[in-house]
Amino acid sequence: MEYVSPEGLRLDGRRPMEMRQLRAEIGTVAKADGSAVFEMGNTKVIAAVYGPREVQNRSQQISDQALVRCEYSMANFSTGDRLRKPKGDRRSTEISLVIRQTMEACILTHLMPRSQIDIFVQVLQADGGTRSACINAATLALADAGIPMRDIVTSCSAGYLNSAPLLDLNYIEDSAGGPDVTVAILPKLDKVTLLQMDAKLPVDIFENVMGLAIEGCKAVSNYIKEVLLGNTKQLEYRRGL
Amino acid sequence: MDARLANTWRLTVNEKNFIKTALLSEIRIDGRKPFEFRNFIINFGREDGLTEVQLGQTRVMAIVTAKLVQPYQDRPNEGTLSIYTEFSPMADPSFEIGRPGESAIELGRIIDRGLRESKAVDTESLCIIAGKLVWALRIDLHILDNGGNLVDAANIAALAALMTFRRPECSLGGEDGQEVTIHPPEMREPLPLIVHHLPIAITFGFFIDESIMVIDPTHNEEAVMAGRMIATVNANGDICAIQKAGGEGVSQRVIMRCLKLATTKAVDITKQIKEAVEAYNSERALQKIKCKSTYAGTNEENRNQSVDSKGISELAGKYMERLKLVSRECCVSPNNNEVETKSLRSGTDGINFTSGPLSWDPYSKGVDPEFLKVSLASQGLSTPNKKKESSGEEKPSGTEREGPYDDVNPKSSAINTSRIEIQTKGQKTLKDAVKPKNKRKKKGSSII
Amino acid sequence: MRGLQLPLSQTQRIRLQRAFEKLQSLSSKANSDASVTVADTIPVNYEDTFLKGHGTMDLNGELVATVCGVVERVNKLVYVRALRARYKPEVGDIVIGRVVEVAQKRWRLEINFSQDAVLMLSSMNMPDGIQRRRTALDELNMRSIFEENDVVCAEVRNFQHDGSLQLQARNQKYGKLEKGQLLIIDPYLVKKSKQHFHHLEQFGVDLILGRNGFIWIGEHVEARDSMVVDQANSSEQSPVLEESNQAYTPLEMRQTICRIANAVRVLSTLGFNVDADLIMETVELSTSLTIDIHDMLGSEFHVLVAEMEAERRSLTTKRKR
User: Fold this and answer.
1) How distant is the Cα of C139 from the closest Cα of chain A, in angstroms?
2) For the Exoribonuclease phosphorolytic domain, which residue ranges apply (chain A) (predicted)?
3) In chain A, which residues have their Cβ closer than 8 Å to the Cβ of B255?
């Protein structure tokens, strides 16, 4: 199957180095301390953050830092066929672990000892790149909740099909069996926190693909900063003096 | 996170600081250099597809089984490969019985990605009838002891198990060609799996300062490290999978450096695994011959093969049948003089089994100091002899100190290491049986 | 939804838009420039000495924000005021909390902070008013003072070494709050003022603005002595009798309380600062237009309030100029 046409267009009409359209919204879950909806093309993810609040399970309390918990689940209706087990299966557990460790690296947990921060991420529509969308949504929700962070975390995925590196794969391109590289960076520090790859790829091509994904992450970070700044300004002027 | 904090083993602050300070001067607490991989031993089990890997103090067991199932609908002519992990609480107090926790699932998925998505095992050859019957391979990984770096050890165990696994041969028959008959192993030789390449997982540990990086962290180092990256590469320079889940951020440059380092390490490890598997295979083939010969009821062949008295060869044969365990020890660093390997003869007849003790292993308990002295003395005796006789051998043979280790090492319960050496065709090999005292005397006399 | 999720007609939308734009133009320019997001560099003259306050971090020698908010400079202190964050307690703040646990010699209160606050038994006035040492009997009778899910008003006494809060309720005006409604809004909307206890005479209603975003609107209670009297009585009587003994809140009073509560809700949805004057104005607006209580939460009233606020602020800025 041809994923990149001879003219250089992908299946959905994008160029190989083009990302899907991004859309973010803050404050969607009223009860949560922070929440956000993040869309990357057709992939739509909602994240809610509760905290810092009292640790519910006393035995898990850490005396000098905050406990970060994360739960990733996919809605039954998020994929084409109804999902049998939205959470608790191995993939969801692994992604929960991955998101938790990624966010934990950027939250300044030592400022909130003996407390707990819960991050709940749910995929409403899955069309490839759910992991990246979840991390972006979680970043927005954490910033909305006013939790101090070292830097925002942005994420993007890239692949390599038909001898061309492609940015931001959708579901069809992802299930083609080619390599899929998901990267999350701290844009200000220019460091990579999350890096996951599957399927075979020679080292030099991998370097290209990873570089492309990092560029995508930087583009996402610009957008996220824009959204956050707009939101902050809006809250401030509404509040008045 | 699901492990109760009360059960987590915690390092003291002093120890943590010590490890960090030592790393600043590129010293690790077990004496390795930062980019040194631990020595590992692969033990094979009685059945095909059963291996146990010992990487330092970490022990992982892998078992491969297969059964016939219906294939997935979207892949009708491919077999399946699934990986299950079992984190037994005896390995680490923080593991809990019951459903696998987060780290168990992560380990399973990393190895799964490395093996399945990179197409290391040829799944199309597992198809019998397209759309109806395929072989489903199942790899079970049991963690027996957690000494750090479970992923690498489990990966090596899984690879070794896959390479030594044999599936029964089956043929189609019947009127419409749909009837499948599975031939039992006694009737027809079971077939090995087609493994295209060996993806090796290498774990890197990052510490607070980005420039500090180690390969193959031990349990202590894992408690101190700020981030880790697992790169699954093969000897051809392909990257099969990478997993870096959060933790300390690293720059792109460092990641590329890690990958290049991983590729060089993978070449070494692949070589060792292949050697070990080959040794096992040749031993197995020899076993088949022996089986047939004893079945036929003649002992002549046995006698011919052994230069020494037939008692020893019979003993050897019996040990082969009874124990059927081969241990392979792989040296990583050439500096390690205490640990030696025997190179494999091109012919399948000559099989040398040695395992030198890991004398640097600080965790071995209960070694009688007298024993040690005696064995050291015997080593002094045997090595000059060996040097005289061994012609084509690359390294001087080691001594058998495995006997006391067998008694002493509580971990090698089911899988004992047999130190049987068979002398064939005038090759000078050491013979060693489980009872060291008897055999040590014979060692001198067996030389011809 | 936190934002405005009301069905707005086209005209309403335009009106609301205009009101917000007016507010935006009124807000001082300096403020909008000072908004930062996470990991933004804070413009600071590095030659001068300055103190790094909350919400800032030193990264490779430059000052970087760790939360989204507005940069404030007070003399030499530079800090970032986070907008939508959990309550940041200061000693002497009035807070309202809900009891979650009755523990040994203390009550644990939930106050929208990163940990639960602690109200020690010794920081609480005894029902009989006598200052004495708390005995074991007092400890056993803690439940008669506060139980789980009671709403309590208290003052922040100090911070403990592990970061948790200690409260005290030694004054007459602190203590259990009854006969009213508790509202939860964002803490940043409640500013620190001289008075947090407001007695709205014309309605006969008590309004307590807790700094942690918990607002209490209830029937006016004269003094806390009633609690003393009740204790003496209730020890003999059954709870059922006790309820019937207490005065029944008339319907009008309840309606007034609801009206005020809705006014607070509208203000918090629109994101305006909540203080007593503004609440009063909003209530007057609703009564003058004879809007039903439940209609107050409708889209029309929201738009009206937004316009009113825009007017008010423009008036105040003009007055300042």
Assistant:
1) 23
2) 18-148, 151-215
3) 192, 195, 210
**Closest Cα in chain A, distance from residue B336 (Å):** 32
- Interface contacts A/C by beta carbons within 8 Å: 135
Kindly list the residues from chain B whose CB atom is less than 8 angstroms away from the CB atom of residue A135.
Answer: none
State the pLDDT at residue A227.
92
Residue C313 forms contact with A (CB below 8 Å): yes
Nearest-CB residue to A240 (from C69, C82, C273): C273
For chain A, which domains are there?
Answer: 22-239 (3.30.230.70)
* Least confident residue range of A138-147, B6-15, B80-89, B203-212: B6-15
Residues above pLDDT 70, as percent of chain C: 88
Q: What is the pLDDT of residues A75-93, one digit of tens each?
A: 989 888 887 777 778 889 8
Is the same domain home to C96 and C162?
yes
- The pLDDT tens digits of the residues spanning B124-156 come to 888 888 888 888 999 999 999 998 899 999 999
Query: pLDDT band at residue C236, thresholds of 50, 70 and 90?
Result: very low
Amino acid at B204: F
pLDDT in tens, A126-164: 998 999 999 999 999 999 999 999 999 999 999 998 888
Same domain? For C100 and C57 the reply is no
Calculate the average pLDDT of chain A.
90
What distance in Å separates residue C306's CA from the closest CA in chain A?
10
* Contact flag A108-C2 (C-beta cutoff 8 Å): no
User: Residues of A with CB below 8 A from B240's CB?
Assistant: 198-200
Average pLDDT of span B232-255:
89
Q: In this complex, do C272 and A238 lie within 8 Å of one another by their Cβ atoms? A: yes
Task: From C65, A204, A94, C231, select the one nearest B100 (Cα to Cα).
Answer: A94
Q: Which of C173 and C65 is assigned the larger pLDDT?
A: C65
CA distance A115 to A56: 9
Same domain membership, residue C101 and residue C4: no
The upper half-sphere exposure of residue B86, i.e. CA atoms within 13 Å in the direction of its Cβ, equals: 12
Among residues C50, C65, C84, which one ends one of the domains? C84
Res B75: pLDDT? 82
Check: CB of residue B172 under 8 Å from CB of residue B180: yes
**C: neighbours with 3+ CB pairs under 8 Å?**
A
Q: How confident is the model at residue C55 (pLDDT cuts 50, 70, 90)?
A: confident
Contact between C18 and C10 (Cβ < 8 Å): no
Considering only CA atoms, which of B431, B445, B436 is closest in space to residue B354?
Answer: B431
Residues C203 and C305 both lie in one domain: yes
Residue B117: its chain A contacts at CB < 8 A?
Answer: 198-200
- According to CATH, the superfamily of the domain at B5-274 is GHMP Kinase, N-terminal domain (3.30.230.70)
HEC string for B32-86:
CCCCCCCCEEEEECCCCCEEEEEECCEEEEEEEEEEEECCCCCCCCCCEEEEEEE
How far A133 CA sits from the closest chain C CA (Å)?
A: 19
User: How many domains does the structure of chain C reveal?
Assistant: 3
Contact predicate B247/B302, CB 8 Å = no
Residues C184 and C320 in one domain: yes
* Domain range annotation of chain B: 5-274, 298-445
**Chain A residues touching residue B109 (CB < 8 angstroms):** 90-91, 94
**Are both C212 and C315 inside the same structural domain?**
yes
Same domain flag for C197 and C316: yes
